[in-house]
Amino acid sequence: MDAPSRGRIDGAGLRVAIAVSRFNESVTRRLLAGAEDALRRCGVADEAVDVEWVPGTFDLPVIAQALARTGRYHAIVCLGCVIRGETTHDRYVATGAAAGLGRVALDAGLPVTFGVLTTETLAQAEARSGGAHGNKGEDAALAAVEMAGTIRRIRASGSAGAEPGSA
Ligand code: INI
Fold this sequence. Notes:
Blueprint: E1 16-21, H1 25-41, E2 49-54, H2 60-69, E3 75-83, H3 89-108, E4 112-119, H4 122-127, E5 129-131, E6 134-135, H5 136-159
Parallel strand pairs: 1-2, 1-3, 3-4
Antiparallel strand pairs: 5-6
The protein binds 5-nitro-6-ribityl-amino-2,4(1H,3H)-pyrimidinedione.
């Protein structure tokens, strides 16, 4: 079954942090450009977006946590690129990042979105960072704005004393 369509995602008034990995920087710069462009198109002001670079994808969670703890942001977009190597190292990096970012999101009650590519080759990563398969940085930014709006709506209806089931 299809999910309800997103319609226009309104990011006006949101403050968003982007944490981005320097590892595989030729790809992550493209993810970052896609994310920044998507935020702008949603109406998030340029001055309401802060970018923090981290060494690699595995390092994203602790920086996302530090950003979350400032209380300044409605959402955090995390960008990285893990490409399969000769050993299993890449799997530990990607799995650790995914688990860590999920934990930060739940601990903080904030959207912490996963714009991390996990691919077999550089070509696959390029195809997903502004190529034939879109731009996963853009997708992560759109998800962050949508989620921030949903959380805002849920909290507002709660504080307005809505009856359960009345929405
Ligand atoms: N970091 C990445 O972002 N992508 C990779 O493909 C990668 N591999 O395969 O090694 C990678 N490693 C570095 C890692 O993210 C940390 O920066 C490092 O382990 C220090 O904590």
